[in-house]
C-alpha cells in the first residue's frame, strides 16, 4: 500500500493503489496488520525451509559426501551467493511485468520444486508486506517501522524500534527525530559490533586450541574438549545484535530510499550484498587454503580443527571488516537521504 495524505479517515487510498484484482483499495478493508500477519506467516514458512537446507548442507557435504571442511565451506558460500543474487531477476520481473503479488505466488510454487524460487520470493514478499502500511498515515507509519523489525523476528529488534529507531510520524512526513539514530548510523553500529564479535571469536578459538594442546587431544578431533559450550555465547550474541542493527536497517534503507516503482529491486539489492559477500568469502577461503596447506602443512581449515587455525582466519576477517567500516564511514557521511515518500 502506497502513501496517502488523506489521513486515517480517508475511505480510499490514492488512485495508484489497487488490490490484487486491480480494484481501488479501501482503507477499512485493505492492508494493515491484517494483511501483514499472513505475509509474516509466509515468510516464517519460507525461512524454515531455507535454513533447513542451509544449516544441514555443510554437514551433508562433509559427513555423507566426504568433502573437506574448506571444500564444503566453498560450496556452501557459492550456493548462498547464487541464491542471494537471484532476487535481482525476481525483482525485475515483479516491478516491470507481474507485480509483487503474482510474483510471490509463482515463486512459492517454484519453491516446492527447487531452491531457485527464492529469487522471486525474497525481493517481493518483504516489500509487499511493507506496502500494506501507509507511510503518510500516523499510525501506519509507526506500524511500518515496526514491521521491518518484526520481520527479523527478534524481540531485541522490537525493543530497538521503540527505544531508538521509531520515526516521527506525528505530521505524516516520515522524518526522523533529531535524537534518533539514523539508518546509516545503525548500519555502522552493526558493522562495528560485527568486528567486535570477530575479535571475540578469534580469542575464544585460540583458547580452544590451547585447551586441546594442554590435554593432549590435538590428534583426537572427535573427542569432546573439557570446555563449556557457553564460551561460544558471547560471539554469537554479538553477532545477533550486530544483525539486528545491520540487516534490519539495510532492508529498511533499500526499501525507503528507492523510487516506489523499484522497491522490489531495492529489496533485491539488500540481499545481493550478502550474495557478493559469500562469493568473496568463498574466494578468500580458497586462497587461504592454497597458501597455508601447501607442502603437507596443516592449513587454517584443516579437517582436524585441533590442528587448524580458524583463529587466524577470524583475525583476517577482523582486519578486512575494519577496512570496510572505515570506507563505509567515509562515504556515508556525505549521503543525502531521499525523501521521495514525502514529496
Task: Pick out its properties.
single chain, 343 residues, mainly alpha, elongated, disordered N terminus
Describe the protein in words:
The chain has 343 residues and is mainly alpha-helical. Helices cover 65% and strands 0% of the residues. The chain contains 11 helices and no strands. It has helices at 32-64, 69-85, 87-98, 100-113, 118-130, 138-152, 155-165, 183-214, 233-256, 263-292, 310-332. α1 packs parallel to α6 (138-152), α8 (183-214) runs antiparallel to α11 and α9 (233-256) packs antiparallel against α10 (263-292). The radius of gyration is 23 Å and the shape is elongated. The model is unreliable at 1-12, 154-168 and 170-178 (pLDDT under 50).
Tell me briefly what this model is.
With 343 residues, the chain is mainly alpha-helical.
How confident is the prediction overall: mean pLDDT?
80
Number of helices: 11
Number of strands: 0
Major pleated sheet: none
User: Helix fraction?
Assistant: 55-70%
Helix/strand structural class: mainly alpha
Estimated share of beta-strand residues: under 5%
> Radius of gyration, Cα only, in angstroms?
23 Å
List the topology elements:
Elements: H1 32-64, H2 69-85, H3 87-98, H4 100-113, H5 118-130, H6 138-152, H7 155-165, H8 183-214, H9 233-256, H10 263-292, H11 310-332
